[in-house]
Amino acid sequence: MDDLDDFNRLVGFYRGRGLSESEAYGKAEDRMEEPHHGPSLSTHDSERITEETMKQLMLGLVLGSVVTGGLVDAARLYDSNGQPSAPAGSIQQQDYFRQRQQWLDVTAMRRTQEEALRQQRLSPCVR
Question: Which of 17, 60, 111, 127 is the most exposed place for a label (fewest CB within 10 A)?
Answer without folding.
Answer: 127
